[in-house]
Design a protein that fits this description.
18 strands; 5-stranded antiparallel β-sheet; globular; homotetramer; alpha+beta; Chorismate synthase, AroC fold; 27% helix
């Protein structure tokens, strides 16, 4: 538990930000799936720091190695261990902060829980741990794509700037999104989001935003009532991502302002298929997928590490202190969190596809 | 899995709405905890149907029996099996709906998943399954109260009517809330909420709302990064409740509109204790409790079973159909969902108190 | 955990020997399986006390009730809760023993672990908890029989008397075994075993034995290396039964006296099927079933509750003490443990059939 | 599951015999435990091939790297990832055997289960996977030693040669055992065992044996009835080791030949401590440790890979075939399996010490 996610499709994650390496072990992937290190690298590159002026200046190539689980270009059904070494770690800035927890950060709670902490770069509480999520999610993504399931995430809103374009799934949608530095649906929204980010950065501050994720091709019947509902598992998966503080499905926090007659999705026939006319529930009813796109949105808080002066406490001297966080930090984590949200959604969907028997244990 | 929740403190839930009984088995409660059937009954009474004009007219006494796990008035550390028989089930209304799934309800997805379903009263997809949650949660509540932890939920908003009173924890706060039919912080808000509910009911419609839950006395250090964070487990627990479609912690969906300098909770000293000046994070940082109150809010959608005419599909004839849902339904589920949210929060907290070792396996 | 067994096919067991009831909740059984209370009762009757002079004189009808999970004579895919009330409990004999732990029994260790114990009839440490195993196993048995898998157990040896007949599977084999009081392969062996049991009983003593279990029809490919091997899961399942102290597969403890060339099972062709010429490995190679019958044997120790005088310690006064166990006890638990071994084997096989995808989640 | 072992103290294992690397991720070790790569290396060296003429001639240094989870020489409470690269893999001998499964080996069942298999050196079905067990077990061992718990295994019997010396725990007992090539209690037994091994090897054959493991210092109260009993978890752990086919606790398979009065361990007082006069139950009563040494014995079958000619089937041509296994194999796996048995016992004990709360989550 704790660093392992999933039941039949599992990811065991490891690694500290400035330690030797980060990575994960994927267990439960069916045998016979074509998989290469490039499939994983492609996803890690989307999460990698230093991609644009909007992100941290830490330079990590985030080169993945696969140590096991693949033979003749296919998965064996055995654990797939993946390692990414840390290279550009600069711990110098963290030494002087080690007894003064950063407001909004996990510094304080980790120290309360574990006593000993690796203060270099936040150790394991750093968002660098999401390398393991993305590497594991890459395997899930490859598996799901074979069964026609695709999850796509993007920045719906950053620092108050909303992209109000409707999301429409098409083959190249992810490439379109990736071509914008803010990871949103159009260039103009991305430009405006970028301005807000850089403005905050210039003031030594940071901004947050909203990430939307849509999964298409999900067959009806995924989800295990009553506790392991599909939305329950998705909620856990996504809320576990650093800086994510809220999640809603379909109309989510609009539901309280609707009447039942407005909130219900009526059933319609399309040929022999039963669909819903609307998709206010976001593709999940009673915790089980209904075949419509799954739609969720998450709130990402502004990066807690800011260079503005803040009040804190020196835990050694037990006296008041001031802190101005140095080191290299993203002024907005949303663009780089986009592939992480996708990864967690993919992990949950792959797990439920296996649990429900839609994906067999052995591929031909 | 699926009908079992928790790791060290577990609840295995069972039962269909119109079957013989509903209930649960609690496993992992430490030995030596004073526990009586009244402790459980008290909580079930708060969830029971037919408490006021705002709720369904189904009359169930929801009388609990405890079959095991208690001796000389104390828990044995062995499984506590609890059973509530179903008495006032009226399946007649459901027979004619059995092939026409109700919009917004789990009827369709359960049929896709399981093939055979118990159509009487919604079977296991009925919110009646929450009897098991509340019975299990009652045990967790008793355990937590011994360690000074208290979770209190209430209706923050119903059908657009907001109770804007600040929540302040005090000994009798739950009694105050329970004394209002809408389960909110003051009588006037409750009255207005009640009006909106009855108005919707009069039109054959329904409304939803927002439930807030605050847990006080939670020690710092609960939560298991990176995947089993305290907020991640709470999110899963609460999103698994029927009709809950969204959850936020602390400022939640406000975070995207704040700067980092506004969102961070600065640390202050109060004697030898480290506190935060504000509690925007809702008591959880980096997935670990920080000792401040845990604050979460959930969106509850309007009840899907409404008597207004809606479009659906007859799954047997595979033709278009109309449906007007009969049977006895709550025009707003929020008041009765309040103790269910508390129950799930208590279950998560009890589990994490055991996992972190704060609660021992054997009480004196 | 602890009182819940299995991953996809789960049994949550509950109940004390002299409490209100014992029973279990089965979760994960596919929907659409014809199942009645008679299917469960039939198995409970095989485990029931008071069946012959060889067993305890406690009179329990062990009448099962099913509270949930079945509709129109078929499983719903939802939890199946089963309850057996305790009627003929006589706690009087136990009161005077409550501070003097019985040698060989769990009295002492339960008290160390839990502090408070239900001393009446051994509480939950009584073999009466196996009612839950057998009820759960009955569901697994029904499910497996639909897929041609049958597990049959019998007494291979009791008190030094061996039944040396070869086990040959046939349709009515279980009825043949059940028709013998000692639950073995032939009447003559049963008679001799019975004599040894009664002789020991007459001296206020008890005997143990060896139970063999053979599962036929198991498809190749069950078992999840490296830790959840089929034999590993079977070992855990069977060793968890009260009084079982050892398990061996195939040649088991004979393997150390064989050469590799004697121990290996050579592969042969039978039509298009690959079989092994011998079955020394007991149907499992590398932790995975190979399609041959699974064969295991377990050692059952003599019942610890005997009326002979034994030394013990009074845990209250912390002084030496003597004990002569009264109450009603089986002088040999082997005959009644036979259906319990079967039940645990069936639970493991059903779980692995689901995990490997051989059994779907929804039956037609 | 499947490649992950344990609940609170978990090991996720990975790696194929001739792939890039083998290793594991340990999750759940408390923070603050002094741990170095030498602690792990020391144990791997005991398992390493090529240690004497009795073992395979494959030359692997089995050099461990620790990638995460340690800081300032102590554990962080975060996952400890450990990697051992494969260097001396020679796959040439395996190519010609790839369609002719070796009798007694997992070749056939893995192919049935997974379709695609890494035939080089047996892939993941090779006993080389036990590197992950031993590395994980080394962390558990270090943790347990701090709490005075020590598990020691040794060859009780090899190829019919028994070491009949009583096991007596002392500080240097492991060094004494390790100084004998057969890993037994005295040099003379070791010499005779070695002769039997080499004789079998000379004939192109192999032998098996019996490994005994004793754990001292185990506090009373470990074990979670009714399913997660300490002996049940130990049985699963140890039976999951390649080539292990049976396990017994205490008197084990002798119990069927004893009377209850002979089998029971009477309680005695030693000062204020309650002990048992004998230890026939092997330190576990009712699935819970009683504070006496835990004693278990396992049957190890002769190595299946032998150079004698055997019958098999060519799975490609589906015709009869002969096989003479080449490659480098241990003629007896017992000596190298000794540290593997210890590792699995240590993993179970560490897990139960955490579950029962004897070991806290944070060490000082």
């Amino acid at each position: 538990m704790s660093n392992t996610f999933g039941r039949l499709f599992q990811v065991a994650s490891f690694g500290e930000s400035h330690g030797t390496a980060v990575g994960c072990v994927v267990d439960g992937c069916p045998s016979g799936l074509p998989l290469s290190v490039e499939d994983v690298q492609k996803e890690l590159d989307r999460r990698r720091p230093g991609q644009s002026s909007l992100t941290t200046s830490r330079r990590e190539k985030d080169q993945a190695s696969i140590l096991s689980g693949i033979f003749d270009g296919k998965t064996l059904g055995t654990p797939i261990a993946m390692v990414v070494e840390n290279h550009d770690a600069d711990s110098s800035k963290y030494l002087k902060m080690k007894d003064t927890p950063r407001p909004g950060h996990a510094d304080y709670t980790w120290r309360m829980k574990y006593g000993l902490v690796d203060w270099r770069g936040g150790g394991r509480s750093s968002a660098r741990e999401t390398v393991g999520r993305v590497a594991g999610g890459a395997v899930a993504k490859k598996l799901l794509s074979r069964f026609g399931v695709h999850a796509v995430a993007f920045a719906r809103e950053i620092g108050g700037v909303e992209c109000d374009k409707d999301f429409v799934f098409k083959k190249n949608i992810q490439a379109v999104i990736d071509s914008t530095p803010s990871r949103t649906l159009d260039k103009e929204s991305s430009r405006m989001m970028g301005e807000v980010i850089l403005e905050a950065k210039g003031r030594g501050d940071s901004v947050g935003g909203i990430i939307e994720c849509v999964a298409v091709g999900v067959p009806p019947g995924l989800g295990e009532p009553v506790f392991d509902k599909l939305n329950a598992d998705l909620a856990k998966a996504v809320i576990s991502i650093p800086a994510v503080k809220a999640i809603e499905f379909g109309e989510g926090f609009n539901f309280p302002y609707m009447l039942g007659s407005e909130a219900n999705d009526e059933f319609i026939l399309k040929g022999r298929n039963v669909l819903t006319k609307t998709n206010k529930c976001g593709g999940i009813q009673g915790g089980i997928s209904n075949g419509m796109p799954i739609v969720l949105r998450v709130a990402v808080k502004p990066t807690s590490s800011i260079s503005k002066s803040q009040n804190t406490v020196n835990l050694k001297s037990m006296k008041k202190a001031k802190i101005q966080v140095e080191g290299r930090h993203d002024p907005c984590i949303v663009p780089r969190a986009v592939p992480v949200v996708e990864a967690m959604v993919n992990l949950v969907l792959a797990d439920h596809m296996l649990i429900s028997g839609v994906i067999p244990r052995k591929l031909d």
